[in-house]
Design brief:
alpha/beta; Rossmann fold; binds magnesium ion; AAA+_ATPase; three-stranded antiparallel β-sheet; nucleotide-binding; 9 strands; ATP-binding; six-stranded mixed β-sheet; ABC_transporter-like_CS; 2 domains; binds adenosine-5'-diphosphate; ATP binding
Length: 240
């Protein structure tokens, strides 16, 4: 349903991703896994269309050609949480676009936002200022905004950072449900073990694609070694 073909992304002379080809299917819950600096966020940003001027192709299937279908949840630390807005306002951005109201919310918009806040368990916090939330509550609000948008392609960059393990399991179940409803769900994570349990598609990357397939195909000592142990950046992640 969406994918990239022979994608190479450079920042100046630094090659962040080399010759990557991968597809993400509707109805599938995919995890992108790799060490810091592996190009995970770069791959997601390319799919969203935030990185123009790359080599290769980004492809969408017929009927889903518009990028309007995408709901993107960026890495939390890249967002400004000092903004004077409420939980409800942030979730409503999933319907109306940016803050500043591109259009006035309809009754359906309000219903979808209410449903999304209930589904992610933060409806009771709807009048709260976002700056007053814990890390886990913030992630729930970002997921509510994503759900409210009703996109077919859900792209999430480390959505479980700062979330306690019980809540992580809840949110993984929520994402899996979205895939079962026919959406393509693609998540960047550091937690290989968790991804193996919940996802049906794993992609291991370290500047190039190391392995791509089902958890059974991908989760091998050789692949994990190739992904995590030879970090050119001088640090490795060994959460697995
Ligand atoms: P990951 O999300 O896997 O940690 P990123 O995709 O964010 O990795 O980054 C991949 C590599 O590209 C890193 O070495 C990073 O420092 C570099 N990089 C990312 N964004 C930029 C940018 N805007 N300008 C220059 N280098 C960047
Ligand atoms: Mg990243």
């Amino acid at each position: 349903m969406l994918g990239v073909q022979n994608l190479t992304v450079r920042y100046g002379s630094h090659v962040a991703l080399q010759d990557a080809t991968v597809r993400f299917e509707a109805g599938s819950f995919s995890a992108i896994i790799g060490p810091n600096g592996a190009g995970k966020s770069t791959l997601l940003k390319t799919l969203v269309g935030l990185l123009p001027g790359t080599e290769g192709r980004v492809a969408f299937d017929e009927g889903h050609s518009a990028r309007q279908c995408i709901s993107y949840v960026p890495q939390q630390q890249t967002l400004d949480w000092g903004f004077p807005v409420t939980v409800w306002d942030v979730a409503m951005m999933g319907r109306t676009g940016r803050l500043g109201w591109l259009r006035w919310p309809s009754k359906r918009d309000r219903q979808l936002v209410e449903d999304a806040l209930k589904e992610t368990g933060v409806y009771e916090l709807r009048a709260r200022h976002i700056g007053a939330l814990s890390g886990g509550q913030r992630q729930r609000v970002l997921l509510a905004r994503m759900l409210a948008r009703q996109g077919h392609l859900l792209l999430l960059d480390e959505p479980l950072t700062g979330v306690d393990s019980a809540t992580q399991e809840q949110l993984m179940a929520l994402l899996k449900t979205q895939a079962q409803r026919g959406r393509a769900v693609v998540m960047v994570t550091h937690d290989l073990e968790q991804a193996r349990r919940w996802c049906d598609h794993l992609l291991l990357i370290n500047r190039r694609i190391i392995a791509d397939g089902t958890p059974e195909q991908v989760y091998t000592p050789a692949n994990i070694e190739a992904t995590f142990s030879t970090s050119h950046l001088g640090h490795t992640h060994a959460e697995a």
